[in-house]
Each structure stands twice: as structure tokens, then as C-alpha cells.
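Example 3.2
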Amino acid sequence: MAGGIEKLTALKVARLSKPGRYGDGKGLCLQITKTGVKSWVFRFERDGKERFMGLGPLHTVSLADAREKARAARASLIEGID
């Protein structure tokens, strides 16, 4: 995918272990802590500042569910709902 973010896959998510944030596109990221805990976050900007909204831990929220939660969060932001 030239110039874009490579989408995450369930296999890639399972294999990732290095701490950091791994983007799936449209604000959805997999966050891995130094202790190895994996969770989903939605990245957005408000008032010129980067913000993150937790969407849930990987062991309870699948990649498909995280994408849907991120879509709903984007829609809420567009409607002005915090």
C-alpha cells in the first residue's frame, strides 16, 4: 500500500510484542505497554491537541470490534459528542 498505513491483521496483532502504538488507519491503534499489555485506542485531535480514547483490551475486543468502535467514535466526534 504505497504511502498509506498497512492494515493490521489478527495474525499480525498476535505476533506484535514490542511496546508502542501500531496504526490500523482512521485513528485506530493497537497499543502495547512495556509490560506487554495490548489494548485498542482511538487517536484523534481536539482543540489542536492529540488525544486518545481507550476502546478496550485485546483479550476482550477483537480487531473487527475495535474497528467498529473506532468508526462509532469518529461519528460521535463529527456530531460534536465527546
